Amino acid sequence: MKKITIYIAMFCVAAIFGSCNSESTQKKEQKSVESVDSDTTTTVEKIELSEKKQLLTDLIGEHSLVSISGAMGANTMVDYYKEKGVWTASGSSIYQAMREPFDIDLTGEDLQKLKTMKVVISPDLTVSLVCAGKTYFKAPFKENGFTYLLKKSPADYSLPSQLKSSSTFIGDNLYIYAKDMISEAEISAIDIAQVAADVAVLTYDKKTKEFTLSQFYGECCDNSTYIFK
Fold first, then answer.
1. What's the average model confidence in pLDDT over 176-198?
2. Can you tell me whether residue 163 is helix, strand or coil?
3. Are 159 and 149 in contact (CB under 8 A)?
4. What pLDDT is stored for residue 41 in this prediction?
5. DSSP label at 188?
6. How far is the C-alpha of 93 from the C-alpha of 129, rounded, in Å?
7. Which range, of 71-75, 105-109, 160-164, 186-190, averages the lowest pLDDT?
């Protein structure tokens, strides 16, 4: 009878310890799952916040000008492009209801600007526009925002209405720099297409993998688009 009592007691103790161990294991597993979920959430948040940084990091270096297209007045259009490594320019305008082409003679100064204009991304992710060895503007890196120097509303320039100083990506475009009311003396050196610009906006298109510098006259229609690769 004593032996039976001892066996029963030992069985109960084993059952109790087994239950405790099971509960302890379940709690450890639950904490482990919660930890994984927390780490995953943190990782996702970091990925979302660092998209701009990762993109610009991959683009560190120099990106050369490859083409310019512009429109002036009511009907004049111009194009600057490389043909077999040589810069060429041409245009067209409407005369007596007919679009007539014309050649554009590039001066030595024009060619120097075309060959040396580039977007440069430094190791600290500052983005600069450089031409003929001179830096014309810099956009220091901002995780949440960009160099926003517009005095008027973006809608006044047909820019996205949601554009603001804290913007980064709008669609496929990363906004890097925007400034209006630029003086003629400040912009004339980089206004190669001569559209009498006073607004400049620099973006990067994730889809086409190109930098685009838009220069235009804020009060009217003159505009030009510079592509860098």
1. 94
2. coil
3. no
4. 43
5. T
6. 30
7. 71-75
Burial of 74 (0-12, 13-18, 19+ CB in 10 A): exposed
Lowest mean pLDDT among 171-175, 179-183, 185-189: 185-189
Query: Would you give the end-to-end CA distance of the chain in angstroms?
Result: 93
Alpha-carbon span 30 to 205, nearest angstrom: 44
Backbone angles phi, psi at 175, to 5 degrees: -85, 130
Amino acid at residue number 26? Q
Q: Which two tokens stand for residue 45?
A: 């948040």
Q: How far apart are CA 56 and CA 174, in angstroms?
A: 10
Q: Among the residues of the chain, which ranges form H helices?
A: 2-49, 51-58, 108-116, 184-187
How do residues 9-64 score in pLDDT, each as one tens digit? Answer: 444 334 444 444 445 445 545 554 444 444 444 444 444 547 999 999 999 999 99
Find the mean pLDDT for residues 2-9. Answer: 41
Helices then strands (H, E): number in the chain? 4, 13
CB 214 within 8 A of CB 200: yes
